[in-house]
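Most newcomers find our protein records easier to grasp once they have seen one. To make this concrete, we reproduce a full record directly below:

…
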Amino acid sequence: MKLIVIKIVLFLALCIPCTSVYAVNDAATGGQSGVDEAQLQKLQGKMMSDPQIVAMITALQNDPELMALMNDTAFLQAVSNRDINKLSNDPRFVKLMNNPAIRDILKRVEQ
């Protein structure tokens, strides 16, 4: 599997908790997600084990907006830190999470 696909899987696994029922946004977490590493690995495993999700993710490597975000170190740091406040105020993240291809992947993963 291409390295870029693996990076997209990791990126999406980190984004899912920021956009789903997993997200916790309160004073106790400083606006960060309450998802632990085991849950992230489970999300990654679910994505990698579903051939349809892998195909959908593979297609994303041609999305210039996603690729631009994946090359933005400050943005990736916010995702890695699960900084929901920062991400929710970033119009690029909001736009990305409204991308139909991303939404389809998220729906499939969260089932």
User: Anything to note?
Assistant: The longest helix spans residues 3-19. Confidence is low (pLDDT under 50) at residues 21-33.
